């Protein structure tokens, strides 16, 4: 049986329509990935007073050739049904061109905008310290993708292997901490201990500066609204 659903198979217009669009309807079957035995075709429904409704439909025939499944894709005038065929095929062509273009074209990915950082301690005068610290007062991104955190102050004591830092983010109070660095504390001789004792005065000054920074941070951390 040919791939045409004919309500009135004696309709010569319907038969001519099926022949004209046979290649197109077969192509639609492939585009729509229809199961075996299901086809795209046309139907013409005769109504009262000589009215006719045209259909582009999907149908299936049983072993005897009788249609046991028939559902319309679109209904309307003959012109509307013909337009539907062309539209379906054209949309597939446009889709295919889009996929081909997408697969062969390098698409520039929009880089996420980096949020501008404003410390709550901006425009507040820093306290005077006894020693020079590296980097000291700073605004270094801590590399936190969630909290948008930045270092406010960092310093390192080389002789005793200590790191002191103040970390600030958008939502929490500043984090102040002192941690041992990678310095090797494996002291073997009395001379090494005596050498360390030569640096205790500088250590005291370094600790005094860390205390000064801590006191300043605690004093001004509540002034965020005034200095954003």
Give the secondary structure arrangement, pairings included.
Elements lengths: L11 H9 L1 H10 L6 E9 L5 E10 L5 E10 L1 H27 L31 E6 L8 E8 L4 E7 L6 E6 L9 H8 L2 H21 L8
Antiparallel strand pairs: 1-2, 2-3, 4-5, 5-6, 6-7
Helix pairs in contact: 2-3
List keywords for this structure.
disordered N terminus, 7 strands, 228 residues, alpha+beta, 4-stranded antiparallel beta sheet
Class of secondary structure makeup: alpha+beta
Give the end-to-end Cα distance, rounded to a whole number of Å.
79 Å
**Strand count, sense and closure of the main sheet?**
4 strands, antiparallel
Mean pLDDT across the residues is: 83
Spatial strand arrangement across the major sheet: 4-5-6-7
> Low-confidence stretches at least 5 residues in length (pLDDT < 50)?
1-8, 224-228
Number of DSSP strands? 7
Q: Give me the oligomer status.
A: single chain
Order of helices and strands: HHEEEHEEEEHH
Q: Determine Rg (CA atoms, Å).
A: 41 Å
- What percentage of residues falls in helices of 4 or more residues? 25-40%
Task: Tell me what portion of residues adopts beta-strand conformation.
Answer: 15-25%
Query: Number of helical runs?
Result: 5
Shape summary: rod-shaped
Characterize the structure shown.
By secondary structure, this protein is α+β, with helices and mostly antiparallel strands. The protein is 33% helix and 25% strand. It has a 4-stranded antiparallel beta sheet with strand order 4-5-6-7, covered by helices on one side. β6 and β7 (175-180) form a beta hairpin. α2 crosses α3 (78-104). The radius of gyration is 41 Å and the shape is rod-shaped.
